[in-house]
Specification:
Blueprint (H helix, E strand, L loop, with lengths): L1 H33 L3 E7 L2 E8 L1 E3 L4 E2 L6 E2 L4 H14 L9 H4 L13 H5 L13 H9 L5 H8 L17 H14 L3 H10 L8 E2 L14 E3 L2 E6 L10 H4 L1 E3 L1 H12 L6 H7 L14 E7 L2 E12 L2 E8 L4 E7 L4 H15 L3
Antiparallel strand pairs: 1-2, 1-13, 3-4, 5-9, 6-9, 7-8, 10-11, 11-12, 12-13
Helix pairs in contact: 1-12, 2-7
Length: 357
């Protein structure tokens, strides 16, 4: 029996290795042609088939990437926030279709009594997104000063409605910042404390955390942007007060930690299967937006799948997380030289390479 199992394992390894090898070759082409720097992890049913690091985490001191490197993940933070909300939903602590005011009565925006928790989760609150409405206001909100959370909400997230809640998708940070505030109100603890207690500590995600602008984080990556006509000519983007991104984008992590989070979601560790199904139910009229992800059918050559994705980007950093729900495939791409549009193309080619398309 042991010989049969050993033989079967050998066959599986021989089958998987050429797939990973093709993906690695594709990654190398991105490095050579377009100066991709970062990490790629590909796993099947939680088992890593490929984990590779390319290039430098810090160019000032010529520090290469490694398993110890912690990456800025920006909007992947939003899925952590969504998971915390879904846990509260499963425990009967929050109604997804209740208005903001039920859990955050001090909120003064017009959306208070009209937009729901579900609207916030699907970027369809209908609010005027003042914080990202112009370059000047983006700098005021995120770059120029450190804001107290309540002051930030009053200054940037309490404007009038410009759409009826639930009718129009409008990607923004503010809806998820409001969700973070609601999480704090329900737990009567800081978002960071809740994040640690409910997700990071239970999953032993020791290399994942919530950033403050003055933190000294060992092995964290620096972000770089390329000049328009030369992918190899890099510069350091304007610094940001990362705290202001809060529950919408202030986290860091590693490929392995993100895989642990991925598996805990899709294997019902953090909440049950029914809750996951609700989380992954996309609204077609809201551009396939589910609760913390985008979910839609997708085809790679002859391979049909259910594509679950989340992206993040900011100040030279980008992150792309894909889970093929019916295949058990997880792909995580983290970079400090490429933007999210590039990673969107890259992920397609890597999945095609994996399936030999």
């Amino acid at each position: 029996m042991k010989k049969k199992l050993s033989g079967l394992l050998l066959i599986m390894i021989q089958f998987a290795y050429p797939q990973a090898q093709k993906v690695e070759q594709a990654i190398d082409s991105f490095v050579k042609k377009d100066n991709f720097n970062g990490s790629v992890l590909l796993a099947k049913n939680g088992k890593i088939e490929l984990l590779t690091y390319k290039g430098l985490s810090n160019r000032h001191y010529n520090v290469p990437f490694s398993d110890e490197t912690r990456f800025h993940i920006f909007s992947l933070t939003k899925t952590f926030t969504a998971v915390l909300i879904m846990q509260l939903y499963e425990r009967g602590k929050i109604d997804l279709d209740a208005p903001i005011s039920k859990y955050y009565p001090e909120y003064k925006g017009e959306a208070a009594h009209k937009a729901t928790i579900r609207n916030l989760l699907t970027y369809s609150s209908g609010r005027y997104n003042k914080d990202i409405s112009s370059p000047e206001l983006i700098h005021q909100a995120y770059d120029n000063t450190i804001w107290d959370l309540d002051d930030f909400i009053t200054t940037f997230l309490s404007e009038k409605l410009i759409d009826q809640p639930g009718t129009k998708f409008s990607y923004n940070n503010g809806d998820f910042i409001l969700l973070g505030k609601i999480i704090e109100k329900i737990y009567n603890k800081s978002f960071e404390e809740v994040l640690k207690e409910q997700i990071l500590h239970p999953l032993n995600m020791q290399n994942t955390g919530f950033l403050h602008h003055n933190d000294i984080i060992k092995n964290i990556d620096d972000g770089y942007s390329a000049y328009e006509n030369d992918a190899f000519a890099l510069h350091t983007p304007t610094n940001t007060y990362i705290d202001n991104f809060y529950s919408a984008g202030a986290m860091y992590s590693t490929p392995k930690d993100l895989l642990a989070f991925d598996q805990a979601i899709f294997n019902h560790t953090l909440f049950n299967k029914k809750t996951l199904e609700i989380m992954l139910t996309a609204d077609k009229k809201l551009e396939d937006t589910a609760l913390g992800f985008w979910v839609y059918p997708k085809k790679f050559g002859s391979v049909n799948t259910i594509f679950v994705e989340r992206q993040g980007e900011g100040y030279g950093h980008s992150a792309n997380w894909v889970h093929l729900a019916d295949k058990g495939i997880t792909l995580i791409i983290l970079s400090n030289t490429k933007d999210i549009h590039y990673l969107n193309t890259m992920r397609e080619k890597l999945i095609m390479a994996y399936y030999g398309q």
